[in-house]
Amino acid sequence: MQYWLFKSEPDSFSFDRLEREGRTEWSGVRNYQARNFMKEMKLGDLGFFYHSSTKIPAIVGIVKVVREAYPDFTARQRGGDYFDPKSTEANPIWEMVDVAVESRLPRPVTLAELRENALLAPTMVLLRKGSRLSVQPVHKRDWDIVKKIAQTPAPQ
DNA sequence: GCCAACGTTGGC
DNA sequence: GCCAACGTTGGC
């Protein structure tokens, strides 16, 4: 059982929308490191759902992996946003997983709060300077800390 | 809107 | 194989 973090821009795909739809294909990842992490994912693994590129970036919910890695067909949709001419049926290159809503956190845990936490700061990939990975692993220790924070009252 | 950090591309 | 140029990400 491993823990992960998925970034999404709420303007393009929010946690609200995932709650309405129940589950989704995590397609469109075009970074090899992120893809490789998706290939490591197992059914039942959990991940934080993080809202990026928004006013208050924050972890807002938890998702569960409900289908392990399989070829990302959007790479072969000519004219689509995620088309990649290098991807073929024999060698799809890009992969995706399916995730479903697990739960919403009692409250969002903001990036600012995560940064302030002395235990998380050195270990969370999200907090590394210049980190842009859209799919990343989370240590169990860090997972537990974030869940604890979410159960405390929001600052101010 | 700015800009630092990063990944990828392509010339050599 | 190096590295400059470029495009993208994402916080602020």
Give a written overview of the molecule.
By secondary structure, the chain is an alpha+beta fold. The protein contains four helices and six strands. The chain has a six-stranded mixed beta sheet with strand order 2-5-4-3-1-6. Strand 3 (46-51) and strand 4 form a beta hairpin. The radius of gyration is 16 Å and the shape is globular. The structure holds a DNA duplex (12 and 12 nucleotides).
Query: Total number of helical segments?
Result: 4
* Gap from first CA to last CA: 35 Å
Report the average pLDDT across residues.
Answer: 94
Strand content: 25-35%
Low-confidence stretches: none
Q: In percent, how helical is the residue content? A: 10-25%
| Topology order in helix (H) and strand (E) letters | EHEHEEEHEH
Spatial ordering of strands, largest sheet:
2-5-4-3-1-6
What's the β-strand tally? 6
Basic shape: globular
